[in-house]
Design the sequence.
């Protein structure tokens, strides 16, 4: 394992980064999508690089900032015996260029002291729009270690929209384009190490870039962090995404994937490590190619047991949809007066608790939906459904929270479900009370919650992941429902005692 060395140059480089961060406001960094890598994480990312088999190592840094990643990577190459390194760095923020230049000259001086050669080319331009992979004058790279910017853009008028359409379909987030273009810029056998949000590993929006990366390269290492808010140096930016480090090898095939898990301080070097078969990590059973990441061998065991389920959620005959009421677009229909005539209850996340769904009209967050002209586009026919929260807070223990909504709860023909909820039913038929309680119990079980966390690192529960996740049969769900509807209390352990035996899985305390 690479141990931090060359302390003096790295101290100077870290000081340059710190000084730049003090000068740059949090809002200015947010506008550019800048989240700076600290020295511990950058050194660790560099440690993942294997010695390139080439006389001159060519490095690519897309979104270089003040250059700490290139510095760590170049010094790592020097330590591996690669004495000639050339780096090409892209950085759009002109204010960062002086600090970047100083950083690279410190690296250059360190190489000179050890009789090596380090050269560099700083390009103050937009990496995505520059498309170095298409520039015939730029040779392919051996190594790319990147911390790309993170922000969404308007697909209708942004210059980034479709900027990488020749590589993958979709416009999920700017960091996806950075990953794809960096991958296109390295040569076969080249290495790419990235630190990004985990969101690209699942979800419909990232399907295109996920397919591109997994087709062009082998994902052979993933490092997951146990805490979301301690990875980046400027943590005043309130990073809510779960972040991961990945190593990709272009043009290679691997049968295993290494998964590491740690905190993000110095203990990153003592990460828990497991190797898993490729088919456990990358789901090839459908066109989503979701990347599952078990944080421990315990979670990997849950993943294996779930993979043995006989069907998928959609295959079992269920559907899941997002509630159609988008509140900021339907203000003329929404009222806080819950006694308004010709209105129906509007169900929101706070109405959903494990197994139960409650709307009394007296809670301070309760709203009604007026049945004005055109309401049909936003309401659905009243019926029995299972409601599933679409969002959880970043520190919430559970990712999945679902309750039963019964048709008989309200005497109305239509009902309102907000778009921060998902509603679940059976395709082509009505959901019975028994089966609804069975579904809610399954989603509220510890086993399914932990299984879902292996699939998705987002706080958002997307319908896409639910549709393709492995799932018990309808017969098993009904069997669970017969008992679940009799529960007097809704403690998770009581739900687990009902669900686990029917699913044939071990109790959580037995596994731990």
Sequence:
């Amino acid at each position: 394992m690479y141990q931090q060395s060359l302390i003096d140059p790295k101290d100077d480089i870290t000081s340059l980064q710190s000084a730049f961060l003090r000068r740059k406001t949090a809002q200015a960094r947010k506008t550019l999508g800048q989240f700076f890598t600290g020295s511990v994480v950058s050194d660790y990312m560099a440690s993942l690089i294997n010695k390139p088999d080439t006389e001159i190592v060519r490095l690519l840094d897309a979104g270089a900032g003040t250059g700490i990643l290139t510095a760590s990577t170049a010094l790592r190459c020097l330590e591996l015996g690669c004495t000639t390194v050339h780096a090409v760095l892209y950085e759009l923020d002109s204010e960062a260029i002086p600090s970047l230049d100083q950083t690279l000259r410190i690296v250059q001086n360190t190489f000179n002291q050890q009789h090596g050669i380090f050269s560099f080319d700083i390009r103050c331009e937009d990496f995505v729009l520059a498309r170095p992979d298409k520039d015939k004058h730029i040779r392919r790279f051996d190594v790319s270690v990147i911390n790309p910017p993170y922000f969404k853009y308007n697909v209708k008028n942004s210059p980034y929209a479709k900027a990488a359409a020749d590589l993958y379909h979709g416009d999920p987030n700017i960091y996806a384009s950075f990953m794809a273009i960096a991958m296109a810029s390295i040569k076969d056998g080249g290495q790419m190490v990235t630190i990004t949000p985990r969101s690209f590993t699942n979800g419909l929006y990232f399907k295109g870039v996920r397919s591109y990366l997994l087709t062009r390269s082998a994902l052979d290492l993933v490092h997951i962090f146990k805490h979301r808010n301690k990875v980046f140096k400027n943590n005043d930016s309130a990073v809510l995404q779960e972040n991961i480090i990945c190593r990709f090898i272009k043009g290679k095939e691997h049968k295993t994937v290494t998964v590491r898990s740690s905190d993000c301080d110095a203990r990153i070097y003592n990460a828990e490590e497991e190797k898993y078969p490729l088919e456990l990590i990358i789901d090839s059973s459908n066109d989503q190619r979701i990347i599952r990441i078990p944080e421990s061998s315990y979670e990997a065991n849950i993943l294996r047991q779930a993979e043995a389920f006989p069907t998928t959620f959609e295959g079992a005959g269920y559907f899941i949809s997002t509630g159609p009421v988008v509140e900021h677009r339907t203000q003329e229909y929404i009222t806080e007066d819950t006694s308004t005539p010709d209105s129906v209850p509007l169900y929101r996340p706070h109405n959903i608790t494990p197994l139960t769904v409650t709307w009394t009209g007296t809670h301070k967050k309760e709203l009604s939906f007026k049945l004005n002209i055109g309401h049909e586009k936003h309401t659905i026919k009243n019926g029995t459904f299972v409601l599933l929260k679409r969002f959880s807070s970043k520190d919430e223990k559970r990712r999945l929270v679902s309750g039963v909504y019964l048709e008989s709860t309200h005497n109305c023909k239509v009902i309102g479900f907000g778009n921060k909820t998902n509603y679940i039913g059976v395709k082509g038929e009505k959901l019975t009370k028994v089966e609804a309680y069975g579904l809610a119990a399954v989603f509220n079980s510890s086993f399914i919650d932990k299984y879902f966390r292996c699939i998705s690192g987002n706080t958002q529960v997307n319908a896409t992941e639910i549709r393709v996740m492995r799932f018990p049969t309808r017969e098993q769900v009904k069997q669970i429902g017969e008992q679940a509807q009799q529960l007097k209390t809704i403690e998770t352990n009581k739900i687990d005692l009902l669900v686990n035996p029917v699913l044939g899985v071990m109790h959580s305390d037995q596994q731990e």
Notes: The CA atoms of residues 111 and 465 lie 48 Å apart. Confidence is low (pLDDT under 50) at residues 1-7, 232-239.
